[in-house]
Amino acid sequence: MKTSNCVLALPLLSLALIGAAADRSPADRAITVSRQAGTPADLYGPLFRAVQTAHVFADNKTFVDLIPRDRPERIMAAFATEKPSGRAALAAFVARHLAGQDGPSQKLSLRAHIKALWPVLARPPLAVVPGASSLPLSDAYVVAGGRFHEMYYWDSYFTMLGLKADGEQALIESMLANFVSMIDRYGHIPNGTRNYYLSRSQPPFFALMMDLSESHDPALDRERLAALKAEYGYWMAGAACLGADGACQHVVKMPDGSLLNRYWDARDTPRDESYTQDVETARKAAPRAADRVYRDLRAGAESGWDFSSRWFRDGKTAATIQTTDIVPIDLNSLLWNLEKSIARRCAAAGDTDCASAFEARADARKAAISTYLWSAQDGRFADWNRVTTAPTPAISAAILYPLFVGLATGAQADATAALTAARLVAPGGLRTTTDPTGEQWDAPNGWAPLLWIGVQGLARYGKSDLADDLARRWIGTVSRFYACTGRMVEKYDVERGHAGGGGEYPVQDGFGWTNGVTRVLLDRPGIDPAIATRCPSPN
Length: 539
Hints:
There is one protein chain. By secondary structure, the protein is mostly helical. Helices cover 50% and strands 7% of the residues. A 3-stranded antiparallel beta sheet has the order 5-6-7. The longest helix has 22 residues, at 464-485. The termini are far apart.
């Protein structure tokens, strides 16, 4: 009786279909039901076959689980009109017309999506399993995302900006505790929290991270100041071993006897995490000594710009890498800031001798930067080549670091802003360099950390219109890509608004520093009109 009532409740059409199906075999009935349901292969025929055979997704299940943004017939009409061909074009078409299965995040605003990602990227304290490459961490931390399951040094500063905007102060303090602990244990902050990163550091942002702290504990302040001094000692240790070569470890003696710094790694072997790539690069660099190539590759990794035409002798190919011959403007700007930060904190602690000593060091560095890393002839900041004893020709977003930390003069800031507007502003943000080499730290890629350096540096010197323009361009790029894909990625093609490319691995989702910089920029006045809430229709 119960079954009969259920059947009587069905629409007459359904009864007719059931009756017709009853006369066929189970296999025939399964085929009929499947076709009536309209599987992705049925609905998207030629698009389905093109996507799957081009291996747009590593897993064939990915495409068939996507959610259409429009009616299937309209998607197929667009496919017939546009005729996308090749993996990249098909991926872009799919991203515009179908959405991922990421659940609630797909329905959240950009601001809410970023906030929802912090718990996803946060990790509890880490105890290391014997034989694993991880470094132990006593406090909670945030990872970059994607393939990066560890905490990275300079990434963390930009991630912290977003954490602060979203009220995650406890995570900021715990990450600072981890960095202090690593300085105590290893004498420096490693590139990342893996033992294969211990032979190098990354751009020294620790002093800037400390400025985000809300602690008022005098004992903690003393502990952190001691850590800053220890980090400074790590970067300057080479001053004690300078010889005829004029360089030792991270320290370079300039022609007038002043000291500046370079990127350097204590090891001269292939990187564990990029072994085969390094061996191949060294092979291409022959007859140059392989150990020198490996050291320069590792130093390039310490810079965070792994890799860029900034470090290449010919400006094009990794086989000509010469990172340890380059005295970089970004590193020396950050070390000037570190010296100023130590001086300020020593003064606050009542240690006037320390404050005076580090003010003097900062003054000496600023003078050396003005002499060697500012090209008066070209009116620009530049990296300096120890071999050619001249500024390099590279024009990159690194020229904005002196503005970011506040060491540029007004005239230098004016010239830097003009050069940025003329050469580095792209439709979707800030170009990394002007050279499209295929490396990930070159054009057409734009990166969140460099965008933040540029926006803050320009604003600091009263270049508000240019700073606001860069911020709006970036938010437009990130929000449009998010509206179309539901994803935040580590880098973007700021010429076309796509995910960035190049480098030693596919572009990664996550992504800590993109989330952090984007989140804090969302609070900037005048940003709202730049936020894309819908995926734009194809032209």
